[in-house]
Amino acid sequence: MELNERNWEERGLRDAVLAGDETAWRALYDRCFHPLYAYVYRQTHGHAQRTEDVVQECWLVAVRRIRTFDPDRARFMTWMRGIAENVLRNHRRKWRRRDGAERLTDDIEHAAPATPHGAQVAVAEQVALAIAALPPRYREALRAKYEERLTVAQMAGRSGESVKAVESLLTRARAEFRKAYRKLDE
Amino acid sequence: MVNEHFDEAEPLVEGLDELPRGVFAPGNLRERVLRRTCATVRARPRRRRAIALAGAALAYVAGLATMHLAVRESEPTVPILAQGTPVAIPSGLEPQPSKPADVELVPADLLIDPKAFAGRVATAPLDERMQLLERAGDRHLIERGDVQAALYYYRQLLDLLPATRQTELNPNDSWLLFSLKQARIKETIPNENAST
């Protein structure tokens, strides 16, 4: 999409949201929800609960401040990342205090930290980013298979499709995911 | 396309049998946040309308308060009305008993609220002020039979009229205004005789 065309479109959506159009808001939201989630997931080093809190706050801030979004200066996703940075900065102070207290407790109890670290975190971040880049249909198929741990038969029963159709969908979703994953690796 | 060699247990990422928690945005999070933000979007025009209405109401109240203060500042001191002596009306110039079409020019609520009426008279141009005073006198006299109040307004009217019109008898004048004008004529004749 050309820059001017995107500006025009995002400006139109912003104006519609300001006029109270819920559909316009949904369009902006759907476009950026997963990429923003992946971005925050990465910034919180794969901490699911923190990611959830920050993402939620980001969207609440965005909907309140949508008037300040200027499509001539940045794309909507860039603007959302700016909001996420500010929200993360505020949360980090809180986390640091809490982590300090937790570390103190851990030292006393000689227990392992609750959050994942190191190479595992790096892989998790990369997976999250690759998933965010997928079309919604592929993303939902992978979620059903790898997060909810459904069998192909269960997925077919849920969606009303044949087992073969679900297998085909999963094959394509995996291929697309691996392509996105490798691209991030380069 | 059907994949003949589909392996259901194939891991998504090589070497990663189980995906870390949170790589997929929770479905309920997406829906929950969408619901909350949509409620804010929907409330935006309602809030804007409410602010506009509150602004308009505030402006209206401020206007009323300003008018009230202006009226209070220009409130006339009501004079003690002296009882006038009856004056004979010359034949051929009998005034009309009532003027129902004209009296409608002064709304009844203005007569009920003398302060508001005084405010309106004070701010009106001269011609309109004279008309208002005459109609107010008429309404008090015709509709309420309140001679004292009618006299009060007619006297103000006569004070505003130019000297030539103060003694100009008009068959449309009420009997009281007619009498007051006649009294003025009588007052001016001795003065003229004295000056000659």
Number of strands of chain B: 0
Unreliable segments of chain A (pLDDT under 50, ≥5 consecutive)? Answer: 108-115
Query: What structural class is derived from the secondary structure elements of chain A?
Result: mainly alpha
CA-CA gap between termini of chain A:
25 Å
What oligomeric state is this? heterodimer
Q: Taking all residues together, what is the mean pLDDT of chain A?
A: 84
Work out the radius of gyration of chain A: 20 Å
Task: Please name the two chains that share the biggest interface, counting residues whose Cβ lies under 8 Å from a Cβ on the partner chain.
Answer: A-B, 49 and 32 residues
* Range of strand content of chain A: under 5%
Order of helices and strands of chain B: HHHHHHHH
CATH level-two architecture of the largest domain in chain A: Orthogonal Bundle
What is the CATH class of the largest domain in chain A? Mainly Alpha
- First-residue to last-residue Cα separation of chain B: 128 Å
Radius of gyration of chain B: 39 Å
What spatial form of chain B do the alpha-carbon principal axes imply? rod-shaped
Q: Say how many strands of chain A there are.
A: 0
For this structure, the CATH topology of the largest domain in chain A is Rna Polymerase Sigma Factor, Chain: A
Shape descriptor of chain A: globular
User: Which spans of chain B of ≥5 residues are poorly predicted at pLDDT below 50?
Assistant: 77-87
Beta-strand content of chain B: under 5%
